[in-house]
């Protein structure tokens, strides 16, 4: 196998499009998610179209130590990862105290813990092998607190912060780390988060558009990629000027469904 990319959350949305882009660039793939049948059909599609090899791993990354177990499996099979896409993640709408705590704990496990475990294992492997590239799918939600999706926004703030720090630590070791920060994207994320009735996703970007932006940013060793230009301007030039209490009220109003 060559130019091997490990992609979590490759069965749908942004992850599936990242897989298609990498395949088009003649890179081999390790696809990870829970829905094996979707990974299998993507494997068939990509192997029929490009001269590449695709392996699929059925993995529930909300299980304890799942990220570390995936790293162990990769090592056992003697696979050397060149590109890591920490992309799997989900959100959840509602007042924090009224949500099932188990759902939020699983969200932290997937969006944060599994990402940290995978990054630790694979970054070490990349250093041993002379380098590599990592793209962490964060969100514009990572730049501000999110009433009505409090845990989700906090997980993405972790990913934005963690990715930047690692970018600095790993630069000299020839491993690049980029945080992809999309705004709303038209994927299954919306229904999984219980936000199908939300107006926030009107005019959402496509998964293909978002994946292309992220992939290019990673290839160019960018630190952060806010994939929507209008949100890039708002976050970098406007957000810091608005009083925090007003930001909180605005986000709550934007997100409220009922
Ligand atoms: N859509 C948006 O508006 C938006 C905006 C900003 C950031 N993001 C971020 O983008 C990333 C990709 O989301 P998406 O929009 O492409 O949504 P999506 O279509 O729902 O994709 C989520 C992927 O994560 C996988 N996944 C979910 N739970 C998992 C688990 N327990 N173990 C392993 N894999 C799991 C899903 O596969 P299975 O269900 O088959 O396991 C799926 O492949 C997420 O990190 C999300 O937070 C999305």
Walk me through what this model shows.
The protein is α/β, with parallel strands linked by helices. The chain has a single domain (about 5-255), classed as 3-Layer(aba) Sandwich (Rossmann fold), CATH 3.40.50.720. It contains nine helices and seven strands. The chain has helices at about 15-25, 35-50, 65-75, 100-130, 150-170, 190, 205-220, 230-240, 245-255, and strands at about 5-10, 30-35, 55-60, 85, 130-135, 175-180, 225. A seven-stranded parallel β-sheet has the order 3-2-1-4-5-6-7, sandwiched between helices. α1 crosses α7, α3 runs parallel beside α4 (about 100-130) and α4 (about 100-130) packs parallel to α5 (about 150-170). The structure holds NADP nicotinamide-adenine-dinucleotide phosphate.
Descriptive tags:
single chain, 258 residues, 9 helices, 7 strands, globular, binds NADP nicotinamide-adenine-dinucleotide phosphate
Please describe the biggest sheet, giving its number of strands, its sense, and whether it closes into a barrel.
Answer: 7 strands, parallel
Q: Class in CATH? A: Alpha Beta
CATH superfamily descriptor: NAD(P)-binding Rossmann-like Domain
Bound molecules: NADP nicotinamide-adenine-dinucleotide phosphate
Q: Write the CATH fold name.
A: Rossmann fold
Number of helices: 9
Runs with pLDDT <50, length 5+? Answer: none
Please estimate the helix content: 40-55%
Global shape: globular
Rounded radius of gyration (Å): 18 Å
- Into how many domains do the coordinates divide? 1
| Strand percent estimate | 5-15%
Order of helices and strands: EHEHEHEHEHEHHEHH
Strand order of the largest sheet: 3-2-1-4-5-6-7
Structural class, from secondary structure content?
alpha/beta
In the CATH hierarchy, what is the architecture at level 2? 3-Layer(aba) Sandwich
Would you report the number of β strands?
7
């Amino acid at each position: 196998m060559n130019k091997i990319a490990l992609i979590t959350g490759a069965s749908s949305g942004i992850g599936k499009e990242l897989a298609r882009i990498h395949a088009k660039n003649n890179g081999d793939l390790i696809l990870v998610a829970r829905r094996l049948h979707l990974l299998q059909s993507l494997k068939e599609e990509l192997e029929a179209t490009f001269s590449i090899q695709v392996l699929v791993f059925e993995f529930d990354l909300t299980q304890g130590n799942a990220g570390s177990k995936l790293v162990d499996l990769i090592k056992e099979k003697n696979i050397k990862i060149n590109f890591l896409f920490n992309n799997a993640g989900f959100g959840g709408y509602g007042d924090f105290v009224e949500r099932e705590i188990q759902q939020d704990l699983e969200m932290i496990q997937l969006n944060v813990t599994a990402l940290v475990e995978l990054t630790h294992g694979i970054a070490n492997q990349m250093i041993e092998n002379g380098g590599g590239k990592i793209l962490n799918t964060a969100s514009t939600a990572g730049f501000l607190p999110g009433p009505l999706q409090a845990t989700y926004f906090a997980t993405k703030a972790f990913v934005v912060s963690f990715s930047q720090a690692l970018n600095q630590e790993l630069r000299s070791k020839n491993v690049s780390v980029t945080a992809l920060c999309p705004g709303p994207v038209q994927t299954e994320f919306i229904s999984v988060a219980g936000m199908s009735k939300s107006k926030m996703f009107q005019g959402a970007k496509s998964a293909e558009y978002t994946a292309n932006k992220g992939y290019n940013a990673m290839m160019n060793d960018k630190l952060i990629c806010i994939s929507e230009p209008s949100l890039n301007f708002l976050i970098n030039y406007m957000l810091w000027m608005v009083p925090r209490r007003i930001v909180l009220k605005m986000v709550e109003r934007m997100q409220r469904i009922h």
